[in-house]
Every structure is written in structure tokens, then in C-alpha cells.
């Protein structure tokens, strides 16, 4: 398959990343099928796309006609088989848990056309292990966007052990066609490259506060005005989802060792379901 053959992209999962990826694909002119497990989740994702497109139009980053056209290219689904029946590429953005993703790929393999290419937006999990659930490991790779996808330039294109060169080329071209900057990651290691840097940053920030050495606002001011990142470490954790960062850390801890031990402060937030912007409360309040 070549870039010109891609017409329809199915995005599985309408959460923070899924709806953002669907928006980016629709803005690039693809027909997008956005699918989640129930009407409420998928409609919420659709509403977020509409909100974001309106915001971009309001700021004259796109025209109102662009926004309307992009929204018109997004169709919502609950039935997985229907959503992938004519998909050229499936981008999977379901929760960051190996068991959940493997179940989705088992169902997907049975439902999708043979030639459809699968790309996972996993933040850290083994692309090779996920691909093994399917019968198309050569047409399977990582396509890792960053939050918020519509604003962030980078897409990591990750090769699993059996990903073909054609698939890597296709997904790299696809990312470019979405106006992104793809970076190929040829070794499938936990957290790939970006999250090996970003997630320990959030964790270390939490350890500093946990140990009483500084406050949340001291750490965030330092990250922003001293280290020069666009957001403070805790603002970033709230933006990404504290649960997402926590699950990535758990996996890196399990595979890479003690340097990645998640800070209890993150675990407490996850247990209290104070996950950041998406729940209205994390390290900061958003209501
Ligand atoms: N769509 C449209 N508008 C959006 C938006 C979206 N998805 N998200 C935010 N905005 C809007 C805000 O509502 C705000 O609007 P108002 O001004 O009307 O209030 C506006 O954008 C803010 O934009 P600005 O350009 O003024 O703000 P900014 O320059 O700070 O940019 C940012 C915002 C791009 C998010 C920037 O802060 C940034 O780059 N932050 C770092 C994000 C980052 O590092 N992401 C990676 C996280 S790690 C990850 O995702 C990997 C993983 O797997 C865990």
C-alpha cells in the first residue's frame, strides 16, 4: 500500500489521544471512523474534536470552512467490525494496558480486511508483543502522537521486530501528510525515546514534592522558567493524564528496573481518580 491508497483511517479509542488523532487525520483530508466502546465515550470524543476545531478557527489557524469540512469527515462508531470494514489504516489509541490492547487486536484481526495496516499509539508497551496477537506483524508498527496531537509536532514511528520497511515508509509518509515531524525509532524498547525522557521528569518532580524538598508550584516554576519547557512538570502530568504517566512508569519499572519506580504521590492521585485536566482535578483544579 502507498500513501495515495489511504482514504479511510479508523481510530480506535475516542479518549484524549484518540479524538486528537482523529482530528489531525480529518484535517489532513482523510475519512475518519472514530470508534469507542459506548455511545457516551464516542460522542464525548466527537464533541472534543468540534471544540478544538472551533478553537483553531477562532484563532484563525484554520478557516471556518476547514473546520466544518474536517468535522464532516468524522463518523462515529460503537461496533468495531463496522468501523474497520473499509479501513486502510487503523490507529489504535485504547487504554495503555497490555491486556486491553491485546483483546482489541484479537477482535480487530478477525474484523479488518487483510491488507489493512495497524498502527498503535502506545506510549510505552512493546509493539512486537502487541503485533504477535495478529497475523500481520509485518503490517504493524507504532505511531505515537503527543498530547495534544493537534498542537504537537512529533510522531514517533516505531518498528516492531517484524515490521516491514514498507510499513515504516507508509506510516512515516502518513505522519508527514498530517503535517507532523515523524522520527523513526528502530528499536522497540519501553517508552521508546520521548517517554524515556518525559515520564521520568514527571516522576522526579513528584519525588521532590513527596520528599518535602519543594512545593508543586516551586517545581513547576523551575521547569518552566529555568529548564525552559513549555509547561511545568505537574502541569504536563495533568495535561497528559496522571494515570497515563503512571502506567508508563509501572511498565518501565517492571522491564527496565528501579530507576523508574513510580512515586507514591502519582499512585495516590490515580487511586483517587484525580487524573488531571480530563477529570477536572489533578495537581491543579480545572473546574
Ligand atoms: N485544540 C485547540 N486548542 C487547544 C487545544 C486543542 N487540543 N489544547 C489547548 N488549546 C488552546 C487552549 O484552550 C488555549 O486557548 P485560549 O488561549 O483561548 O485559552 C490555547 O490553546 C493555549 O494555546 P497557546 O498557544 O496560547 O499556549 P501554549 O503556547 O502554552 O501552547 C501547548 C499550548 C502546545 C499545549 C504547550 O503548552 C505545550 O507544548 N505543552 C507541552 C505539551 C507536551 O509536552 N506534550 C507531550 C506530553 S507527553 C505525551 O503526550 C506522550 C505520552 O505518551 C504520555
Brief account:
The chain contains 12 helices and 8 strands. The chain has 2 domains: 3-185, Rossmann fold, CATH 3.40.50.720; 194-279, N-(1-d-carboxylethyl)-l-norvaline Dehydrogenase, domain 2.
Q: Key features?
A:
8 strands, N-(1-d-carboxylethyl)-l-norvaline Dehydrogenase, domain 2, 12 helices, binds acetoacetyl-coenzyme A, 287 residues, eight-stranded mixed beta sheet, globular, alpha/beta, Rossmann fold, 48% helix, 2 domains
Descriptive notes:
With 287 residues, the chain is an alpha/beta fold. It has 2 domains: 3-185, Rossmann fold (3-Layer(aba) Sandwich), CATH 3.40.50.720; 194-279, N-(1-d-carboxylethyl)-l-norvaline Dehydrogenase, domain 2. Helices cover 48% and strands 13% of the residues. The chain has 12 helices and 8 strands. The protein has helices at 16-27, 39-58, 64-72, 80-84, 98-111, 127-131, 165-177, 194-210, 216-227, 233-240, 242-256, 264-271; strands at 8-12, 31-35, 74-77, 89-92, 117-120, 140-144, 154-159, 181-185. An 8-stranded mixed sheet has the order 3-2-1-4-5-6-7-8. β4, α5 (98-111) and β5 form a beta-alpha-beta unit. The N and C termini lie far apart (46 Å). The model has no long low-confidence stretch (mean pLDDT 97). Acetoacetyl-coenzyme A binds at residues 52, 55-56, 123, 146-148, 150-152, 195, 198, 230-231, 236, 239-240, 244.
Mean pLDDT score, rounded? Answer: 97
Give me the CATH superfamily of the largest domain: NAD(P)-binding Rossmann-like Domain
Uncertain segments: none
Q: What structural class is derived from the secondary structure elements?
A: alpha/beta
Could you tell me the radius of gyration in angstroms? 19 Å
Q: Please state roughly what percent of the residues sit in beta strands, choosing from under 5%, 5-15%, 15-25%, 25-35%, 35-45% or over 45%.
A: 5-15%
Bound compounds, please?
acetoacetyl-coenzyme A
Amino acid at each position: 500500500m502507498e500513501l495515495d491508497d489511504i482514504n479511510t483511517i479508523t481510530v480506535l479509542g475516542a479518549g484524549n489521544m484518540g479524538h486528537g488523532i482523529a482530528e489531525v487525520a480529518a484535517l489532513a483530508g482523510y475519512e475518519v471512523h472514530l470508534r469507542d466502546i459506548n455511545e457516551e465515550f464516542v460522542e464525548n470524543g466527537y464533541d472534543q474534536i468540534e471544540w478544538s476545531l472551533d478553537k483553531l478557527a477562532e484563532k484563525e489557524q484554520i478557516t471556518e470552512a476547514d473546520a466544518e469540512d474536517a468535522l464532516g469527515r468524522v463518523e462515529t462508531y460503537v461496533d468495531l467490525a463496522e468501523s474497520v470494514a473499509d479501513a486502510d489504516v487503523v490507529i489504535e489509541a485504547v487504554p495503555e494496558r497490555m491486556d486491553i490492547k491485546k483483546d482489541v487486536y484479537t477482535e480487530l484481526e478477525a474484523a479488518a480486511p487483510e491488507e489493512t495496516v495497524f498502527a498503535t499509539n502506545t506510549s510505552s508497551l512493546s509493539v512486537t508483543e502487541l503485533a504477535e496477537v495478529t497475523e500481520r506483524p509485518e503490517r504493524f508498527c507504532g505511531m505515537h502522537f503527543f498530547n495534544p496531537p493537534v498542537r504537537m509536532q512529533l510522531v514517533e514511528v516505531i518498528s516492531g521486530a517484524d515490521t516491514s520497511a514498507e510499513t515504516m515508509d507508509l506510516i512515516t509518509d502518513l505522519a508527514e501528510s498530517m503535517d507532523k515531524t515523524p522520527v523513526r525509532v528502530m528499536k522497540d524498547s519501553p517508552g521508546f525515546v520521548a517517554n524515556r525522557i518525559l515520564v521520568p521528569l514527571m516522576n522526579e518532580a513528584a519525588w521532590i514534592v513527596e520528599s518535602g524538598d519543594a512545593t508543586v508550584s516551586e517545581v513547576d516554576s523551575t521547569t518552566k522558567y529555568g529548564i525552559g519547557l513549555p509547561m511545568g512538570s505537574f502541569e504536563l502530568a495533568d495535561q497528559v493524564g496522571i494515570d497515563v504517566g503512571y502506567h508508563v512508569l509501572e511498565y518501565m519499572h517492571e522491564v527496565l528496573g528501579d530507576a523508574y519506580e513510580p512515586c507514591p504521590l502519582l499512585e495516590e492521585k490515580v487511586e483517587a481518580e484525580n487524573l488531571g485536566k480530563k477529570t477536572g482535578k489533578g495537581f491543579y483544579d480545572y473546574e
